[in-house]
Request: fold
Amino acid sequence: MMMLCNMQTLCFFRTYTYRTIYTTATGDSLPFKTAFLNCGLSEKTNFRASNVVPLQSCSDENRPGAVLKLFQDFGFSHTDITRINSKQPHLLTFHPDKYIKPKLEFLVSITKSESEVVSIVSKNPLILKRSLNNHLMPFFEMLKSAMGSEENAAAAIICNPFLLSFCLSASFLQNIEFLQKVGVPKSQILKLITKYGQAVGEQHGKFCKVVLKVKEMEFDVSSSYFLDAVRTLSFISDVAWESRCEMYRSYGFSDDDILTMFKKHPTIMSYSEKRIRELLDFFVYKLGWSPSTLSNSPNVLQYSLHKRIVPRCSVLQALVSKKCNNKSMMVTSLLAMTDSRFLEAFITAYEDEVPEVMDAFKGKLRFDEYNFEPERKAKFKA
Reply:
């Protein structure tokens, strides 16, 4: 109860941004250079720190070396340290024993694993800039309350280290209670917090509106599609939603087609309009798919047009144009294959007979450079 009351004083759940102005160092960057070289790191790694961290911000010229040594002693590799320095170079000016070590020890106490802490901090070193007593510890207590146990809370942080960069608000627990009220299983709530924690921290009224809208679309609250739909609608405005719907309608999609597509693959509405148009131009105009066909196979829209779709369709077109494959090939299955499986089935198997397939796969041949014989176009189906 006390936890819920205390939450009233917290800020809204959001990504925490430090308003630090980076300036080029005007003094001698020798402390940074010496520290990096002494730890076996390259001068290239030192460049980031010495050029964006004003030397005067470091009151002790030995501090950068002490910070790096702490990281090394804790088990951070050179690669980890380079990544941390690239993301948060100001950490080199922090007192290692006073500000950094206690936070590392706290993270070990909740995850029970130094290696997990190394992974967490390497991915999100911003954690080390947050106050231990005013943020990290209270945050974990509230997350533990929301997740039901310390183990669940720790697992959520391990899965999504960026949770620790957020602030919790009263809305967070209210939203969880609302999810329970409308019948969302606890397992799904835990997944939503872990995968899309920021969405759960939305203003309570807005969050309730989103959840109810998703339920009205008849999503199964126990499915992963429900989570994806809540996440998508949490971060897309009503205006943006309608704009995307109008774009789909311009290609001949009915409202039922759009809803069917969204229910099968909710994230399609979060893509930029430019990306969606390029994909629709290809599938509707080049492959000749109807809106109803595409609405039943919306997963194809998740792939990169230029890195995956066009190269693989070019390979398929090369094979069909050479009459080398008499099997009926489904584009949806072809696009879903792993690179290794695709290479084995369509490149290695036919490269001697049709050398063009490798160039097609590497994107060196344009898809529309091939000409299908009309009677063979039927093979190019969804």
The first strand starts at residue 329 and ends at 330. The two ends are 55 Å apart (CA to CA).
